[in-house]
Each structure stands twice: as structure tokens, then as C-alpha cells.
Design goal:
The protein is an alpha/beta fold. It has seven helices and seven strands; from the N terminus they run βαβαβαβαβαβααβ. The longest helix has 22 residues. The chain binds NADP nicotinamide-adenine-dinucleotide phosphate.
């Protein structure tokens, strides 16, 4: 059964990794999907790979103007917005003592400010009874050396979801957090680690997970489908952790 028939969904970072799998899962379930990111080539490729009606919009999640354009164009094209997934983000691994102000701003901008304003710009354009999903990380609640800025920003968006759940409740917009970790995507190659360091980091992560493996993007998309669909109609302000049990033991 298709669970998102007739719905319109916006997925930031829908051109890669977890965001792309979510966009594909939503599209396979009948949603019209808009994907948003900075890289024109991967946006085009991802858009072509989506089954149903879709559109891509190039922009930066840290730019107020680009976010306004995203939601205005989506609204103009599809007439409505039911689901927003604030997924764009990523980590750079850096020891705490080496983080410069520039590094701090870069990582907190995309992982916190970008998510905050994605939802602030989206909310007025969304239908009542819509669903908003914020993609966080298990670094929001556990120590990951090298991820001081990233983990703090991911904790901030977890807190944000609680407040937005209250503020958007009169419109019955449900805000939930999806917390994947670790998932096999291009995110690893964007951390600044070498291939060898990535291999060691993944082996360490797998060893800390009860299921003893790293997750796949489709497994996270299945959880996003639950949060976006009426299957989760009584779930609000919650955090759905998809980490093979890493933070639950
Ligand atoms: N993979 C993991 O193990 C893992 C674990 C925990 C949490 N997460 C979270 O899951 C989300 C998706 O990550 P992923 O693993 O799928 O990584 P990914 O494959 O590197 O995808 C990241 C996506 O975010 C987009 N993005 C980054 N900065 C952006 C910006 N300023 N404006 C617009 N788009 C931007 C990228 O598109 P462009 O490059 O085109 O801008 C890309 O589509 C992130 O929030 C990440 O923190 C991932």
C-alpha cells in the first residue's frame, strides 16, 4: 500500500545518502518530492532516479533567501507542502582544541541554523496536519571525540523539535527527530579523514553496535516513512533512533 499518495514532500540534502533514500522511499510511496542541495549534478541525477513527479531546487540550507525560494517555488509548483525533512548536514572531524571560529560557524550553520530556518520558512507554507522531520545524530547524546561542534548542533536540533512540537501543535503539524547512526554514505568522505582513518572509524563504530554492522540509507528511509505517514499519527516531539542499538545499551 502506498502511504504518501497525494502528499508533497521537501527533502533537504535529497541529492545524496540518507536524504536521497528518503526522497526515493517517499516517491515510491506516491509523494511528489522536491529535493534541495548545493550540487547541481547530483541534484539532476537524483531527480531522474525518482519514480514519480519530482523537482529539484539548487540552494544552500544556510541561506535565508535560498530557503525562501525553496518553499515559494515548491508551493507555486505543487500548490501545497505536507512533509518537510530537514536532513542537510554533515560532520567534520576535528579535535576540540583545533576548532577555529570559522570551523565552528561552518558546522553549526548547516547542522543547527540551517535546520532552524528550514522549518521556520517551511511552516507558514505547510498544510495543517503536516509532518516535519529533523535528522539528528547519536552524537547528540553520546561522546564522539572529534565531533564537539557537530554533536552540540545535533543536540540543539533535538531540543528544537520539542519546542516546535508545542508551537506548531495548534496546526497539528507533528515535529519528530530521526536519529540515524552510523550509516554508509558519502558523509564519511566529507569528514576530512583519510581512507584508512575512515576504515578504522567504521570498524570502531561497528564494534560498538549490538547488531555489529553499519546501517544502510534504506533502513533510515523506512523510519522516515513511518514519521511522515499517518502510521505515526500519535507520535510528536519524539526521537526515533535508528542506530542498531548503539545508544540504547
Ligand atoms: N551517515 C551517517 O552515519 C550519519 C549519522 C548520523 C547523522 N547523519 C546525518 O544524516 C544527514 C544526511 O547525511 P548523509 O550521511 O546522507 O551524508 P551525505 O551523503 O554527505 O549527504 C549530505 C547531504 O546534505 C546536503 N548538504 C550539506 N550541506 C548543505 C547545505 N549547506 N545546503 C544544502 N544542502 C547541504 C548535501 O548536498 P550538497 O553537497 O549538494 O549541498 C547532501 O545532499 C546529515 O544531517 C547527517 O548529519 C548521518
Amino acid at each position: 500500500m502506498k502511504k504518501l499518495e497525494g502528499k508533497v514532500a521537501v527533502v533537504t540534502g535529497g541529492n545524496s545518502g540518507i536524504g536521497f533514500s528518503i526522497a526515493k522511499m517517499f516517491s515510491d510511496h506516491g509523494a511528489k518530492v522536491v529535493i534541495f542541495g548545493r550540487d547541481a549534478e547530483s541534484l539532476k541525477d537524483a531527480d531522474i532516479a525518482l519514480a514519480g513527479e519530482s523537482m529539484f531546487i539548487k540552494g544552500d540550507a544556510c541561506s535565508q533567501e535560498d530557503l525562501e525560494t525553496l518553499f515559494r517555488k515548491t508551493r507555486n509548483h505543487f500548490g501545497t507542502i505536507d512533509i518537510v525533512v530537514a536532513n542537510a548536514g554533515g560532520a567534520i572531524m576535528q579535535p576540540f582544541l583545533e576548532v577555529t571560529e570559522e570551523d565552528f560557524i561552518y558546522q553549526s550553520d548547516v547542522n543547527f541554523k540551517g535546520v532552524f530556518f528550514t522549518l521556520q520558512k517551511a511552516a507558514p507554507c505547510m498544510n495543517d496536519s503536516g509532518a516535519a522531520i529533523i535528522v539528528s545524530s547519536s552524537a547528540n547524546c553520546r561522546a564522539v571525540p572529534g565531533m564537539s561542534v557537530y554533536g552540540s548542533a545535533k543536540a540543539a536540533v533535538r531540543a528544537l523539535a520539542r519546542t516546535l512540537t508545542q508551537e506548531l501543535a495548534p496546526r497539528k503539524i507533528r515535529v519528530n527527530v530521526l536519529t540515524p547512526d552510523p550509516v554508509m554514505t558519502a558523509a564519511y568522505s566529507r569528514t576530512g579523514l583519510s581512507e584508512e582513518e575512515i576504515g578504522d572509524f567504521q570498524a570502531l563504530q561497528a564494534s560498538q553496535i549490538p547488531l555489529k554492522r553499519i546501517g544502510q540509507p534504506d533502513e533510515i528511509a523506512a523510519a522516515a516513512l513511518f514519521l511522515a505517514s499517518s502510521d505515526s499519527s500519535f507520535v510528536a516531539g519524539a526521537e526515533l533512533v535508528t542506530d542498531g542499538g548503539m545508544t540504547q545499551i
